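The authors assume throughout that readers already know how a fold can be written as discrete tokens. A single example would do more here than another paragraph of explanation. An entry of this sort, consisting of the sequence and the corresponding backbone structure tokens, reads as follows:
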Amino acid sequence: MGKPTGFLEYDRVEAKSSAPKNMESLVESCRLSSDDFEFFESVATDNNMSGRGIMRVLSVARTIADIEASETVTYDHLCEALTYRVRDKNTSMIEQLC
């Protein structure tokens, strides 16, 4: 058997954690307000983020919210997560938005 693909590695890591098991439950666990959802949607569209990239940002934002003992993912959590994901050329845009 060869080396697992990134997708399989992600599933294996996720299965060992307490993270949500699928995309729908991850999105639901974030409990984004409509304003925060619109903000994230516009940033994701403007930066041509893939579905996988969007889910990774949400996962990081959910983790940040968990560390702060927040039941919901807020604008600030999204901004922090986006700074880790958006490439260098767009970092200044994120800094202006956040």
Remarks:
- Confidence is low (pLDDT under 50) at residues 1-16.
- Residues 10 and 16 are 10 Å apart (CA to CA).
